[in-house]
Automatic annotation (TrEMBL):
Keyword Glycoprotein appears in the UniProt entry: no
Annotated Gene Ontology cellular component terms: cytosol
Organism: Ladona fulva (Scarce chaser dragonfly)
Keywords, sorted A to Z: Cytoplasm, Disulfide bond, Redox-active center
Domain called Thioredoxin: residue spans: 7-124
Family the entry assigns: Belongs to the thioredoxin family.
One term of GO molecular function: protein-disulfide reductase [NAD(P)H] activity
Protein location: Cytoplasm
Keyword match Disulfide bond: yes
Name the UniProt record assigns to this protein: Thioredoxin domain-containing protein 17
Length: 125
């Protein structure tokens, strides 16, 4: 069963990741452009990736923790000093970015729309 969390912003991300990394065996984090008034992200690639990621999550048997993180509005994300870009643990260069927390590999942009790549990321040791 997948345990899902959704947070907005850097501080909420840090708080939640600290909580879940002490107990979760597998943590999958999707960094996405924040959702706007219509409930969808301002980022078209993020809008495309989210349902694909969610569909893969629905097929998982094992205990996985999933964390959706809104990185801010377009201007916040595009700022070269955006904290998500500067954090040494993250070093994000694009959204969407999907990472298996604690592992080096990641999926970026259109790669997040490939269910086979998402499954490979989850199998990584």
């Amino acid at each position: 069963m997948v345990i899902k969390h959704s947070v907005e912003g850097y501080d909420a991300f840090n708080k939640t990741i600290k909580e879940v990394e002490t107990t979760a065996e597998v943590i999958l984090v999707l960094f996405s452009g924040s959702k706007i008034g219509d409930g969808e992200s301002w980022c078209p690639d993020c809008v495309s990736a989210e349902p694909v990621v969610n569909n893969v999550l629905e097929t998982l048997d094992d205990e996985t923790t999933f964390l959706y993180v809104g990185v801010g509005d377009r201007s916040t994300w595009k700022d070269p000093n955006c904290v998500f870009r500067k954090d040494e643990r993250l070093r994000l260069t694009s959204v969407p970015t999907l990472v298996r927390w604690g592992k080096p590999h990641r999926l970026q942009e259109e790669e997040c729309c490939n269910p086979d790549l998402i499954r490979l990321l989850l199998e990584e040791d």
